[in-house]
Write a structure and sequence with these properties.
Helix content is 45%, strand content 20%. The chain has helices spanning 4-25, 67-72, 76-96, 110-113, 118-128, 149-161, 178-181, 193-197, 203-218, 231-239, 256-265; strands at residues 29-38, 44-55, 59-61, 104-107, 136-141, 165-171, 188-191, 222-225, 244-245, 254-255. Helix 3 runs parallel beside helix 5. The termini are far apart. 34% of the residues are buried. The model has no long low-confidence stretch (mean pLDDT 93). Bound molecules: ligand C2E and magnesium ion (2 copies). Ligand C2E binds at residues 34, 50-51, 62-64, 67, 83, 106-109, 139, 169-170, 193, 226-229, 246-248, 253.
């Protein structure tokens, strides 16, 4: 059977691939930032940096359309280095302009954890811009621990020893049980947004989230809910004791210029 759409997406993949290295040099990539909000007073306590590709022909391209491609063709390593440097440069610029700083999390994939230069790149970037290491956080998914748990753990332990905090992203979509997570150097779990989506209607999702929150808290881990899109979800999560939230309801990811005003304000009024 001839599948035209498959062909089209393969062609687009090739086109993106051909431009990738040049795009890195010409700063076609940029970072958008989404705040993480503490449930107590709705203060901004951190942000997540999310990559975008401003393609001259295709406009704004989201990571799901090019991260897998970058992974497949070993471009995720240079891309990851670009992200680390870009976040540090941004933090230094904000500091220079007296904009209140909060820790910024970057997403790191399995392949990036295997990169021998990862730690060095992070440490050098922090040093270059004279930034304390707590200002950079790492988000990894459970898939990082499937193939080679020991080496992934070692890398993360070194990062933690440098003063960076590590969060487990998309929690609940992988295989990791909480007893297993206890052995990893993570300080927070980010519950995947697929569990948050129907938290008000689907009783089993609500149960899963509530028990994850209480177990994680008993293990001394912070719990972050991602993908919060409504006031009802927000209030539900507050009642069950979730520590932090992230989602479109409070703030969509936006470019650095827009996030600056939000950082100046420092908190949200959820009602
Ligand atoms: P993630 O780390 O789980 O990031 C959360 C994703 O959920 C982001 O999508 C964000 O825009 C989206 N999101 C946030 N709040 C809501 C909400 O309320 N509702 C809905 N429906 N979505 C929400 P985005 O930016 O498209 O990123 C997708 C994934 O791409 C990320 O998932 C992360 O795994 C990956 N990614 C993004 N930036 C990077 C990067 O610099 N390096 C690597 N290796 N991966 C990245
Ligand atoms: Mg993430
Ligand atoms: Mg996530």
């Amino acid at each position: 059977f001839y599948d035209a759409s498959l062909n089209a997406s393969a062609a687009r993949g090739l086109e993106l691939l051909a431009r990738f290295r040049q795009a890195l040099k010409t700063d076609e990539f940029s970072l958008h930032y989404q705040p993480k909000i503490d449930m107590q007073h709705f203060d901004i306590v951190g942000m997540e940096a999310l990559i975008r590709w401003n393609h001259p022909d295709h406009g704004l391209i989201f990571p799901n359309d090019f991260i897998p491609l970058a992974e497949e063709h070993d471009l995720i390593i240079p891309l990851g280095h670009w992200v680390i440097k870009a976040v540090c440069r941004q933090l230094a610029e904000w500091r220079k302009r007296d904009i209140p700083l909060v820790p910024v999390a970057i997403n790191v994939s399995v392949k990036q954890l295997q990169d021998e230069l990862l730690l060095d790149t992070i440490v050098s970037a922090l040093k270059k811009y004279k930034l304390p290491s707590y200002l950079l956080e790492i988000e990894v998914t459970e898939s990082c621990f499937i193939d080679d748990i020991d080496s992934a753990k070692q890398v993360l332990e070194k990062l933690r020893a440098e003063g960076l905090r590590i969060a487990l992203d998309d929690y609940g979509t992988g295989y990791a049980g909480l007893s297993h997570i206890k052995t990893l150097p993570v300080y927070a779990l980010k519950i995947d947004r697929s569990f948050i989506r129907d938290i008000r209607n689907d009783n089993s999702d609500a149960m899963i989230v509530a028990s994850t929150v209480s177990l994680a808290r008993n293990l001394g881990l912070k719990v972050v809910a991602e993908g919060v899109e409504s006031k009802e979800q927000l209030m539900h999560l507050k009642v069950i004791g979730c520590d932090q939230v992230q989602g479109f309801y409070l703030q969509r990811p936006v470019a650095s210029e827009q996030i600056e005003q939000i950082l100046q304000k420092g908190r949200f009024d959820p009602l």
